[in-house]
Amino acid sequence: MIGIDPPFRIGGNPGAFFEPSDIHGFFERLAEARFEVKYPMSPGSMAVLPIVSTTTSVAPGIWRWSAFSPHHRVDLASHLVWDGWNCLVFDPLPLADPLWATWPLEQKPGWLVLTNENHERDVKAWSERFSDAVCMGLAGERKENRLPSIPSNWVCFDLAGGAGGEAAFHCAALDLMVFGDAVVNLPGRGLELLPEKYCRNPAQLRHSLGLLPRFGRALLAHGEPLMERASERIHAVVGS
Questions:
Q1: How remote is the C-alpha of 82 from its chain's centroid?
Q2: 7-35: per-residue pLDDT in tens?
């Protein structure tokens, strides 16, 4: 844990907003990449992250990239969120080495955020590359009996009952909530809660989700984002 809270600068101007075009080209090049990346999932085993075929600018300041994991047998998604001052990367998946040279920001990402204890993914490589970034998640922080150190304009919600260390991260200015496993929206299945067999306490998870504030948009670590009426749609699933 690195306890820093640096201002984020774009083009040497403290607090400046970057234009979406500044970073979109980077992810366009990422979308055109064809590669496989091997990364450790457990001692003595390797999982393969297959070809990255698409990346998406979800909204101004929000980007998403994803791949199907044969190891997990599910789509995995990562997100980059720029809130106008801070840059946060959620549940980072590995990127092809040549693409790092085109990283468009003068400054490094400030936060590498894990939405639960199962989402380490490629965070070790990201934290080595961006050594000043704060690597954080509710699970890791709880070991020290402290809440996560996140930018002041973000709020972390403990989603007790889900996977270990399950949390959601809310930025009111962006009308955005970022989820890990608690809510999924996979192709062919639609919007649903984490299946009960993966929950520590399904009823408690429903209760935790029911306590969340209203938000219009949601990013999910598994499946397509919800870009309108997100809290209303999730609460409908919670109450079903």
A1: 12
A2: 222 222 233 333 444 444 544 444 444 33
In the structure, how many helices (H) and strands (E) does the chain have?
6, 16
Best CA proximity match to 113, nearest among 64, 179, 53, 162: 179
Q: Is residue 34 part of a domain?
A: yes
Query: Taking the CB of residue 66, how many other CB atoms lie within 10 A of it?
Result: 20
Provide the CATH number for the domain around residue 47.
3.60.15.10
Cβ(230)–Cβ(177) below 8 Å = yes
- H or E element at residue 172: none
The answer to whether residue 82 sits within a structural domain is yes
Token pair 């050594």 is at which residue?
A: 131
Residues across the chain: 240
Query: Considering the domain boundaries, does residue 1 fall inside one?
Result: no
Q: Would 2 be classed as within a structural domain?
A: no
CA distance 203 to 208: 9
Asked if 154 and 143 touch (Cβ cutoff 8 Å), the reply is no
Determine the structural domain holding residue 89 and report its residue range.
9-238
C-alpha torsion 75→114→174→234, nearest 10: 60
> pLDDT digit string (tens) for 170-209?
999 999 999 999 999 998 899 999 999 999 999 999 999 9
**177 Cβ neighbours under 8 A, 6+ residues apart:** 168, 169, 170, 212, 215, 217, 218, 219, 230, 231
Q: Is 78 exposed, middle or buried (0-12, 13-18, 19+ CB in 10 A)?
A: buried
How many domains are contained in the chain? Answer: 1
Contact 30, 163 (CB under 8 A): no
